[in-house]
Recover the amino acids of this structure.
């Protein structure tokens, strides 16, 4: 199939002039011995012309997906489950029983999203929607102190960074990092529209945490109203994620469903909710291993169901095997 001339990165006026000269496809120019000469005066160099006329390299949807920016969890095992980390522009659900590490991972992500670009980080900010009072400045401070301690060790090595990057990293403090996490206390999902104002005031936001998504729904008795709240909130969050390239992380509880044979435990809000998120991790405590946890991948666009072990220490979320 021939490539239309209008697909070249040229102005509309230039495209019109080329069409008037009889060129409708890129191949018309390539096939002529002096074809590129017809573009001179519209671009700067011969090499630039030839680069434009090259056929674009094909990529699969999966390959394009892997090029998305992401936020590290500080556990390589969990990052591998999520195709490199929590993905920007996507919804990730963390579900599990109380004490399974959901809020800990959320707070760790609020630290990780601020990693400077010279460390291949996003150097961004976070919004923490707190519906159940799990947000803890003290816990965040512990995680930040651990991160800054690691940065200090890296900076102590000679010739590791240029002076500008050293000055940037030295300006990082626990106080400055806390200022880049914008907490919103909320008990009604209808109030999520406030996110628009916060994003407008803080355009560097690349992470939104809703911890927990299900908590405000416990007081809603009407099932139709509850379903409407859930889907309206998800529509809003998906729209923000896609438009602004923001990673959205939701925490969800477990609920017990009793059937004729036995009682089974499932994430709350049912399968309809699961279809709206891109990734789902089921978190649980590992018996007989202090501070040891498991993350089970229940839904992913890239990987089959698999699991990773992680540890929650004073420093934050880490790989279990690296600490043992």
């Amino acid at each position: 199939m021939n490539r239309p001339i209008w697909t070249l990165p040229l102005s509309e006026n230039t495209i019109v002039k080329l069409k008037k000269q009889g060129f409708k496809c890129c191949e018309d120019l390539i096939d002529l011995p002096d074809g590129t000469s017809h573009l001179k005066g519209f671009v700067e160099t011969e090499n630039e012309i030839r680069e434009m006329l090259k056929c674009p390299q094909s990529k699969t949807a999966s390959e394009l997906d892997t090029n998305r920016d992401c936020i590290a969890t500080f556990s390589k095992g969990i990052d591998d489950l999520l195709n490199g980390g929590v993905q920007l522009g996507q919804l990730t659900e963390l579900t599990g029983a109380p004490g399974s590490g959901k809020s800990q991972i959320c707070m760790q992500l609020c630290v990780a999203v601020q990693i400077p670009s010279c460390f291949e980080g996003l150097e961004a900010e976070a919004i923490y929607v707190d519906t159940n009072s799990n947000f803890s400045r003290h816990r965040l401070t512990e995680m930040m102190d651990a991160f800054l301690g690691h940065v200090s060790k890296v900076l102590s090595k000679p010739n590791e960074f240029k002076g500008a990057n050293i000055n940037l990293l030295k300006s990082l403090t626990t106080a400055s990092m806390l200022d880049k996490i914008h907490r919103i206390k909320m008990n009604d999902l209808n109030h999520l529209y406030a996110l628009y104002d916060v994003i407008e005031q803080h355009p560097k936001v690349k992470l939104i945490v809703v911890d927990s998504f299900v908590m405000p729904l416990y007081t809603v008795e009407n099932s139709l109203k509850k379903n409407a709240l859930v889907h309206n909130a998800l529509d809003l969050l998906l729209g923000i994620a896609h438009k602004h390239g923001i990673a959205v992380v939701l925490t969800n509880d477990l609920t017990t469903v009793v059937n004729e044979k036995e009682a089974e435990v499932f994430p709350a809000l049912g399968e309809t909710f699961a279809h709206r998120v891109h990734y789902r991790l089921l978190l649980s405590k590992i018996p007989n291993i202090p501070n040891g946890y498991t993350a089970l991948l229940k839904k992913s666009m890239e990987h089959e169901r698999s699991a990773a072990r992680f540890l929650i220490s004073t420093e934050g979320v880490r790989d279990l095997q690296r600490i043992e």
Observations:
- The mean pLDDT is 82.
